[in-house]
Specification:
Blueprint lengths: L7 H13 L4 H57 L1
Length: 82
């Protein structure tokens, strides 16, 4: 393959293209701020999910007790019918 001579202008264009794809400090700072807000939101969501799980477990226990009580009452009523 033949070698191509690269001129200073060619090199300058290549370097400029590389810099064009690089984020600015302002963009990075903005991204840091947005990530910080997302981390706070995720923390709140995790806390809410934890509370929901706790309440569901609590409700599940109550539901089990209520189901047992209803079964008991149904059995008593079934005995009285016969």
């Amino acid at each position: 393959m033949a070698k191509k001579n690269i001129t200073i202008d060619d090199l300058a264009v290549m370097v400029q293209k590389g810099f064009d794809k690089t984020a600015t400090k302002e963009q990075i700072d903005n991204l840091d701020e947005r990530v910080g807000k997302l981390e706070k939101d995720v923390s709140v969501i995790k806390s809410d999910v934890k509370e929901i799980k706790y309440k569901l477990n609590e409700t599940s226990g109550r539901t089990d007790k209520l189901e047992a009580r209803v079964d008991y009452v149904e059995n008593i009523l079934a005995l009285k019918k016969n």
